[in-house]
Amino acid sequence: MNPDTLKYTEDHEWIVEQRGLYVIGITEYAVEELGEITFVELPEIGRRLERGEDAAVLESVKAASDVLSPVTGVVAEVNDTLEMEPDLINRDTYGKGWILKLKDVDLEEYEDLMDSRSYRGYLKTVE
Amino acid sequence: MQQTPLFSQYAEHHGRVVDFHGWALPIQFSGIMEEHRQVREAAGIFDCSHMGEFLIRGRDSFAALDRLVIGDLSSLAVNKCRYTTLLHEDGGILDDGVALRLSEEELLLVTNAGALDTVDALLGAQVPSVENLSATLAKIDIQGPLVPRILLEFGFECVRHLGFWVGMRHEWKGLELIVARAGYTGEWGYELFVPAEGAVALWQMLAAHPSVKPCGLGARDTLRMEMGYPLSGQDLTADRTALEAGLDRFIAWDTDFPGKARMEQQRDSQDYQKLVLLRSADKRAPRNGFVLKHEGEEVGVVTSGTFGPTVAYGIGLGYVPCSLATPGVAFEAGPRNMTVQIETAPFYKESTGRKKIEAQQL
């Protein structure tokens, strides 16, 4: 995934449409903050998530952190590999470290999210 | 933020610096998991120069110190170390520390950064002869199974004479060091006290060894938690007594210390909350502040928690009522009601810290 073409939340999730599904992960900034990820709790397939609702839990050596759904939608797929290899997120957060995919998303909410340029601007305000 | 004499060395090893009780210290270098493994399998060095060191001279001063701590440090044999806690007037824990009897007339007390000013004021007021060496002494902890051989390569012949929790002076390049076989990781290791002006040279010498890597506060925390060691200011706080903190074996009941009546009452009634080790059923970790419930009722709190990199499950420390403080008793912890159960100390049982020195190993 090319970080320049993704959409972003203020909570440091990324999301992008790919073949009709919306792939979600966390940004490099979030990965740096969390440190080495040791445990991932994934949502059930078919579960409906509201925007901002807990979609997954990531635990690192340092802390536990919720992944919030960037948009309203229904869980279509989860990245099971993370259960055995949670550090895939550390190694490749924009690729093999994706977390879940949504279908039936609220497109208006999706369009409202930050693009990569806005997100980079936003990062300057939080750093 | 205050900087230790080794601050300039962190950037060379890509250390990420954080504020730790007002000190700019590295939380990690290569990564917490990697540094943790490094100490369990080889050797790691930690900059612990932020810690407090007090030199206490003379028997009257030892006796005065004894009135402030749970232990009887006057009885400590020369070259031996002993763990103890300093107390508030009500018996609550002010700080913990290790005392090393350097000679008949000298005792080195090593304490933490968090309460340093309070400890300095207390000792200054109560102990006739005490010198705060914290600003002039740097401290490098070197820890891991390969450490005795590494220090011998560097000419530290003193390690041949240092059993577990034994320390002595050692001359190195014209500087007077104090070397104590102790540490906070469970692994075989030494705490090296070095005059500040020699700290960088000692650090650089050790860091250049192929089996040594610099380690940060993050790995120090996961390593100590795998051993079930409490952390001053986090697991050991002013609202807890040493008895509550599970430090019974360090209490000299036949001496006088602040809050003794309160602790005797706790001991006799068995009606208090006690610090226990909590093991998660999986890789999820209990975290500081998680409420502990037993059969649906709130009974305690988690004070430390992390994923244990070597044991590979979630681990923590927390306070539960004495009546429930038995290995195997289970609790629900935190907002997601994860299951944790009491484990006997330590979580990690293969550590090398207490191994006896054998000639063939050196």
Assign the CATH class of chain A. Answer: Mainly Beta
The chain-level mean pLDDT of chain A equals: 95
Beta strands of chain B, count? 19
Shape of chain B: globular
CATH superfamily of chain A: RNA polymerase II/Efflux pump adaptor protein, barrel-sandwich hybrid domain
State the CATH superfamily name of the largest domain in chain B. Probable tRNA modification gtpase trme, domain 1
User: What is the CATH-assigned architecture of the largest domain in chain B?
Assistant: 2-Layer Sandwich
Number of helices of chain A: 5
CATH hierarchy class name of the largest domain in chain B? Alpha Beta
What is the count of structural domains of chain A? 1
Q: Note the gap between the termini of chain A.
A: 24 Å
Please mark out the parts of chain A with pLDDT under 50 across 5 or more consecutive residues, or reply none.
none
